[in-house]
Amino acid sequence: MATRDIIIRPLHQYFKRSAISITAPPFPNINFQSFSISAASHHSNLASLFQRYGFSPSQLPDFLRKNEFLLDSSPSEVEKSFEILLSMKPSQDFIVSTISSCPRVLELEFLKKWQKGFLQLQICNITTKAVKNVLQVAKKMGLSPDDVLECILYLKDLGISEGTIIRILEEEPMILASKRDEIMEKVKFLMGIGVRKKEIDRIICLFPGILGYGVENRLKPLFDEFDDLGFSLSEVKREVLRDPVVLELENGELTRCMELLRSLKCRMAIKERIFRSGEFRAGYEVKLRISCLREHGLTYRDAFGVLWKEPRVILYEIGEIEKKIEFLLQKMRFDLQCLVEVPEYLGLNLDKQIVPRFKVIDYLRANGGLGDEVRLRNLVKLSRLKFYNMYVKPYPELEKVYGRFSGEDQVRSRHPVGMWKLFRPQQYLESKEVAKNIE
Q1: Distance CA 171, CA 209 (A)
Q2: Which SS3 state, helix, strand or coil, does residue 431 take?
Q3: What is the rounded distance in angstroms from the CA atom of residue 103 to the CA atom of residue 112?
Q4: Backbone angles phi, psi at 350, to 5 degrees
Q5: What is residue 415's DSSP assignment?
Q6: Could you give the CA distance from residue 235 to residue 250 in angstroms, rounded to a whole number?
Q7: Mean pLDDT of 73-82
Q8: pLDDT tens-place string over residues 257-293
Q9: Helices in 214-354 by DSSP H: which ranges?
Q10: Closest CA to 314 of 351, 340, 283
Q11: Helices within 102-196 (DSSP H only)
């Protein structure tokens, strides 16, 4: 049956029932079958082209469906776009990540313009991430190479080095769409707190995010909070120069951290170590650990509770805390919520205390040596000697696994044997006169 008959017949049947006669207009002789075959062939050519440049076959159907503009371009045009991208940064990962995050960069005219544009920027050793971000921002914000060049030249006029500019393009590329006054406002603010012009480059390099902050709604309220907490401007400036990322603090965040520190109930030795670099730094260290715990899934309230109950966590580096959490979840198979119940876990040494105890328990579990399942509380809170007597001593084969009280690893005295003799008071011979006086 012809395609024309398939389309017209329902209309004829309708008007026949309605007692109305019409004459069907002539349809052009369109070969729908050849048209669909051609579209499928075009789609297949594009898919094979994308696979050749690193895209996985599983993600292509959904990608091409969401980006139908690619079907308007011939495979040869799309391939030219790929070649231009490769000339910018010869890396398959660069192509896949750039196109996946912003498919519109494949437009051929846009890439031709930017192939010359990057030469105008005159930035040596520009990184893959920076090139990717410039292309994405330029496409989304409609920026030309001249617009980007103007922004970069202005940054150089402010004394910003080329290395810092690359960092800005990597971490804060939206600055390319900012006005000059907005950039100058942040520079003036830093100079207003006593930062010298030659130090501004280092601050922006270490924390490019400051260029994205508003002065009135973010930076000034933050410094007002520092003042309310009793920190002088010179003290704040010293901390900003030491680690500019402290400016990432949210308004009110440092206040809550300081309240936690001032309410700690722990040994004086631990508290002295926490405050050894000053109150400001101690509060910021608390903030870093709160953020670490929150990133792993704890609520704000629970994270504060863990640090308040176990202040030793503040003394551990972030990397060490993350290792302990990973070991808890991956190896020990405990839930993250166990940290709220047993925060002491994060205060123990991973290699010297946690790992040896877990090896003992894991061995006993595998060999049927455990009557009841050992909870994290029992594993952590038992003293070394009690843990040894309960789980290691009855099983001689575990002596080397635990190693704390076994064989050659006996607990050593603080002083060598016989050291006490050196502390005996010196004795003198008694003369007749001394003996008479004693009597």
Answers
A1: 7
A2: coil
A3: 16
A4: -65, -50
A5: S
A6: 19
A7: 87
A8: 999 999 998 899 999 999 999 999 999 999 999 999 9
A9: 220-228, 233-242, 253-262, 268-274, 279-295, 300-309, 318-326, 338-341
A10: 283
A11: 108-121, 128-141, 145-157, 162-171, 180-192
